[in-house]
Amino acid sequence: MSLFIVTLGLTLAISSKWAYSYFGLSSFEQIVYHIKVPLEGTNTQFIFGWIKKCLLPGFIFGLIFSWIPINIAKLILLLCFIYGLVKFISFHMFLTNLRRQISLINTTLNLKLFHLKRR
Question: CB–CB of 62/3 below 8 Å?
């Protein structure tokens, strides 16, 4: 069970770093679009690249870290959790900033429409 948890944590941490370097800073609309679009017709090199650069290292490091004494493994899991939490908080801050910008744009557009209707 610990092998699975360590492998999953490391794979997710490596995948978040890979996704940021591969896609760059994506907008919320792009993320929703790519979640909804099926993988049909996707370049297989993209999937094999993820397996080679994320899944395989996560599994290898998971095997290594599952054999390390429990205290060190717990420390590594804690560090992976903190790293994931920091990434989540930074993504949440990005979404909050995006919502503020959209709200500002909507307010500006509503004011312009209001002034146009008054004429």
Answer: yes
